[in-house]
Amino acid sequence: MELKDLKGKRALVTGGTKGIGKAIADELAAAGATVIVSARTKPDETTHHFIAADLTNSDQVTALANEIENTFGGIDILINNVGGLTTPGGGHSTLTDAHWHQELDLNLIAAIRLDRILLPQMIEQKSGVIIHISSVAGKQALWNLNMAYAVSKAALNSYSKALATELADKGVRVLTVSPGATRTEPMVKFLNDYAASAGITPEEGMKQLMAQTGGIPMGRMAEPEEVAQLVHFLVSPSAAYLTGTIYAIDGGSLPVVS
């Protein structure tokens, strides 16, 4: 029997049409929530209410918020999942101002922009949960692969903590989930491209990348559904006393205590 602990809740999952975002959307819907998903383009099929939006465009964020308000009267759960590694590796000399702005806009400012426009309704109803999907890269940057991305995720972690502190006495909880290597289409493409550029197999490429980070003690990547299950718990009533914390889901790969 599925746990319907989110019955009556309205949830928005950005980037909710594939990968981790889709897994989260499906998980929350299975728990009883009414789920809205957004992405730049509409998928071939989805069982959730879809709203097209480019969250790096402030006008489209406003239109998204207006449609949610007019159709659903607001939301109770916001999953800021939009993001990604879009800039080249190679270190500081390969990254232009445009690269830095692009990565920060997608991985940090998009979440800030959406939080700002949806928070007044959450504060007014004195309840709500915001989850920022970050990355273990925010605590373990690889200069030759993901410098700008890692910096943007570290900034998201800091912003999320500050926002959680601001909203703690207003009934709104804010948490951060930081996946490690997860078996998604973008991750598979990244591994294939990395392997091709190095003239090695994807399996060898994975081993090389994991060697830079100390490996994954559990010996495999996460499945998107495993990340979704963690998110489900964090937005549920069972996690009512949790706010301001970063939860790594990485198979034990982060070689740090925190």
Automatic annotation (TrEMBL):
Q: Which SUPFAM superfamilies match?
A: NAD(P)-binding Rossmann-fold domains
Quote the NCBIfam families the UniProt record gives: PRK06523.1
- Family of the protein in this entry: Belongs to the short-chain dehydrogenases/reductases (SDR) family.
Q: What is this protein called?
A: SDR family oxidoreductase
